[in-house]
Amino acid sequence: MRVLSFTTLFPNSADPVHAIFVYQRLVHLARRPGNQVQVVSPIPYVPSGLHAERYRALRGIPPQEQIGGLQVWHPRYLLVPRVSMPLHGLLMFLGSLPLVRRLHRETPFDCIDAHYVYPDGLAAILLGKFLGLPVVVSARGSDINLFPSFRLIRPMIRWTLRKAAGIISVSQALKEAIIELHVPAEKITVIGNGVDSKRFQPVDRTAARHQLGLPEDARILVAVGALRPVKGYQFLLPAIAEILPRYPKLQLYILGEGDYRPKLEAMIEKLNLQGRVVLVGGKPNDELKNWYSAADVSCLLSSREGWANVLLESLACGTPVLATRVWGAPEVIVSPELGVLVEQDVHAISNGLELALGKSWDREFLLRHARSRTWDDVATEVERYLASCIAR
Fold first, then answer.
1. Would you state the pLDDT for residue 327?
2. CATH code 3.30.470.20 for 205-371
């Protein structure tokens, strides 16, 4: 099976850990006998006069690069931030068409595997119509739990889902939201993400803390995720302040970067959490096992998530989780022996923290659960589903 994977959610030389979960799915699919996977990952071209800082690093990404054994192409398409969102999918299609047409002419593809319903999925559907190829679209989170609320975007999302040959949802909760967009349930299959148990495995807690320079006698929490309001740090920090009198050696390390940093720094100062809460910054994916292993509990207090990979990654390192009871989280934390689920509320979070910190966890149970869902398992399911869509 020859697959064109089309997605902006993919690592590149400027951001090697971007959407590593999509890379994992594709590289494991490519390793299966008889499969060839080429990745087209469009890069926005933002006119330099706009001084868009967040897009500046993208200008140095080459048109073609090798990422972990996968051939990755980066066609450019015009993007005007906060203006061209309703045209985003069309602009992505127009920018990618010459390259995709040439690749298909050289060695024809059997299907297009698109990740993220809008704008990537819409552009992929247009490419599929132009080339006569079936398109399978994967829904991953904000493309379904946020974007349909935008008046101009919702019709394009519904059109994309109706025209797709098949739809993969990373959680049952997302599938139900797709059905509410008047898409037949039988057109959607649920294939959750997996975990790389070689990359995420337990490290001795004392050794991990020593390597990271963390205090050995502290009660340590970690939170891995971009510094954005959706991640719920504005609820987590007051909850830390609330329980600090009962846990005087409590420390929180937040691993991630983003535009929300100045507000979090101000909140840390206002709550007198200096030295208690540390904004570590972003860390490479292969360093995270030490942070998870060093922690007593890892935290994810998001308001929305499709399938949060950090939950399985933490469990694979033997560390229980505290997570908000939203979207795909209850589908990962299926037992109270894996973690604590709470509402996104300061008092609920503080109570959940005390419960998680006071409980004796069975690390072997956490490890077995995490290892029961590997990326090889995911690739097998994806291969089967793509083949069935091609046959139809």
1. 86
2. no
